[in-house]
Specification:
The structure holds two protein chains of two kinds. Chain A is mostly beta strands. Chain A is built from no helices and ten strands. In chain B, strand 5 and strand 6 form a beta hairpin. The chains are: A mainly beta, B mainly beta.
Chain lengths: ~110, ~110
């Protein structure tokens, strides 16, 4: 079973910020939070990941709650090319394989 | 481009035929994963290699499925006696060995069973 919970879909206007929420109440102390996005007919694309502190990169920011039971992916200015399915993932660290356990993600629609 | 490469991108075959897919990971990555994705769902883990050793297989991987990674470089996933339910996107990903390193995905092989 997926370890994360996300809304099925969200909409945003172009050039406005987007906040994509994720709940991961069963997160353990060593679990990193990874975000990916997937465009149609493409593989998942890495966006950002973090452990405890907020993280920024050229694509997005990741805000992690103090108790680490939730996080938010922030796209600062949505463009039409950001329309995708966004996955919030915790890795399976118990077995040592560090495989991803995907949920169904959030489908982001960006309106022109 | 030095990303993960998968071949072929599309495969159409008749039920009962065997198919083989290839994945070329990023060259310095010692971990390699196979996932399967059906329409409207997130990818599901199938199997994992560390170098040439296959260390974990999902229960989704029936005995008709076999994966190899000779010499710890490219990997192949073979499906024997294909069934309608095997129609899916098969994704390969690779990563470095540290637990916090992200996986890098290829664009997958889409399998359609007639």
């Amino acid at each position: 079973d997926a370890k994360t919970t996300q809304p099925n879909s969200m909409e945003s206007n172009e050039e406005e910020p987007v906040h994509l929420p994720c709940n991961h109440s069963t997160i353990s102390g060593t679990d990193y939070i990874h975000w990916y996005r997937q465009l149609p007919s493409q593989g998942p694309e890495y966006v950002i990941h973090g452990l405890t502190s907020n993280v920024n990169n050229r694509m997005a920011s990741l805000a992690i709650a103090e108790d680490r039971k939730s996080s938010t992916l922030i796209l600062h200015r949505a463009t039409l090319r950001d329309a995708a399915v966004y996955y919030c993932i915790l890795r399976d660290t118990a077995s040592g394989t560090y495989k991803y356990i995907f949920g169904t993600g959030t489908r982001l629609k960006v309106l022109a | 481009d030095t990303g993960v490469s998968q071949d072929p991108r599309h495969k159409i075959t008749k039920r009962g035929q065997n198919v083989t897919f290839r994945c070329d990971p990023i060259s310095e990555h010692n971990r390699l994963y196979w996932y399967r994705q059906t329409l409207g769902q997130g990818p599901e883990f199938l199997t994992y290699f560390q170098n040439e050793a296959q260390l974990e297989k999902s229960r989704l991987l029936s005995d008709r499925f076999s994966a190899e990674r000779p010499k710890g470089s490219f990997s192949t996933l073979e499906i024997q006696r294909t069934e309608q339910g095997d129609s899916a996107m098969y994704l390969c990903a690779s990563s470095l060995g540290h637990s916090n390193q992200p996986q890098h995905f290829g664009d997958g092989t889409r399998l359609s069973i007639l």
